[in-house]
Fold each of these.
Amino acid sequence: EREQRAALELALAYDATLEGWARALELRDSETEGHSRRVAAMTDQLAIALGVPEDERVHIHRGALLHDIGKMAVPDGILLKPGALTEDEWKILRLHPSHAVELLSPIEYLKPALDIPAYHHERWDGTGYPNGLAAEDIPLAARIFAVADVWDALAHARPYRKAWSVVDVTRHLESLAGSHLDPHIAGVFLRLIREGKMDPEVGTERPEPVTLLVIDGSEGSLLLVRRWLERDGYRVITAQAGDAAIDLAEQEQPALIVLDATGPETESLQVCNRIKAARATAHVPVLLLTGVRLDAETTGRYRADEVLEKPVAPTALKSAVRRLLDGRAVSAR
């Protein structure tokens, strides 16, 4: 339990630090406020749809948050210039992917996340920078990110132009498929948009917070998971198991329940199955967090909608929560 909590705290500290760096860059360049969180969230959703494994998505999320960190080395006179850049100024600006590699490569845990900061300006047809890579020579993470980046840049207003309509951004993305963008990835993204399975505003403040219930026998882990989810705008209520958890679920009617099963199997199994058996809560998705790998028989005894093995990275937890909430929304239509 102590080791798992330490791993959770470390992962939270990592992600909080990265979000702080991304926010610092946005404070310097106020035109792009909120862009990093939005585009990181869309990249997460697209990676899930493409079947990217969970352990790789953690690094993709970190790389997306830090995609423009190299601009920290670009002078204000160029980065914040209100008019058109000269050719020499463009040359300096286009060095920011290389600056990102210089900044991040000495940090061991960020080395697997470098593909997006280093290659997100490469193009499918080989006309991008800094290396002129083409097609599948461009790392997958960078190709996924590029699609979300174009969408977000055009769908949000800038001081020098209005936000484009969904129709116009969609047409533009279609025109870039096969030239600037990986045509397969662009097609999957646009399909998700059309089917209402991609939320371009994920990562921004929610006007009406969704209520989640977190059930965990460990107060330390309970507070950690609560902090993770509250930072994404959810309203989080907590219980430490037993009858109190069941009563709270029935009273509050949360949109989703996160249940930790690290403790005695009989107790967590009973809570999960009571939630699923009760008429008032049977419809509520349950995300089970377990400290051990469950065999098929044990997994079948739990009536959970999804199972994650601890220690769980914040990115993996948040993705699973979004996935289950999105699934509930679709089934309610």
Amino acid sequence: MINLKTKITQIHYQRDPEGIIFDILKFASYFYAFGSGFKNFLYDKKILRPKKVKAFVISVGNMTTGGVGKTPVVSEIAKYLINQGEKVAIVSRGYGGRLNNKNVNMISDGTTIFHDAVQSGDEPYWLAENTPGCYVFTCKNRYQAAKCAVEKFGIQTIILDDGFQHRKLYRDLDIVLMDSVKGFGNENLLPAGPLREGAEALDRIDKLVVVSKSLNHKTAEKVSRIMHKRLNLSTMVCYTEPDYVYNIKTGQRLLDGVPVTAVCAIGQPQQFFDFLTDYQVEKTIAFDDHHQYAPIDVINIQGNIITTEKDAVKLARFDMDNIYALKLKTVINVEELLK
């Protein structure tokens, strides 16, 4: 039986949704629109002003809920800047982690990771593991985290993971990602649609990145050209493709063609399942985004389990021999993006 959250997600990406559930959500979205629009009005008219830190601040975010692919792009930007000699910190809200995000939590100093995935949250932990040399902090108050990073650790560049709606912190560059297929969904505001903000937010975007999660990138490239003309924005494509599947304990690669069960807890699970064409997927299991796994979720699954790297950081603590992760490769021209 389909649960309510799954039904709402389906509504978000229907072209012309209708029905009693949508009507209720649409009514609720008017209140959301008022709150979101009023906040943006206060900042746009400079009644409220964002706070500045003594560092260059880059925000990577999106207009919609759900997984677009921000985290790998954040990592690619950080690695590029570190290679340029910059001292870089990533600041995340730490959603889903058990650490108190009212505090500033250092997840990594670029060398040592201080908290596991359960404590820090799956995305900050993945960033810490996959972005060597980069500081990673979590805090609900991004300004306080950025201020701490600059004043205590001499950070020169701050990258906000999912920071577009967090207007309390001034940023020098606002990068927004959109999915090449999902787009802006049904183009309704929450909770009737996936949009976090209305059209007034489009004026704040400096660079728009169209994320292609497909083996055929023609759609993304076409969408990028359309958005460039429609919004008069600098646009580019980020290419995301499957690379290989590896055992999360041993690193051994999984041979193509074997039967597997696909398990994930991400915003857009179908996109992950679609990447597994080289395997015999016997069953798919999708949990809510940022789900905190318990052993019962996977312990009784027979045979090989394939999951995402985001999920793997939480499943690793169960010390199972049959869990594999899909390694994705993210290709984006960071030099061009930061111009």
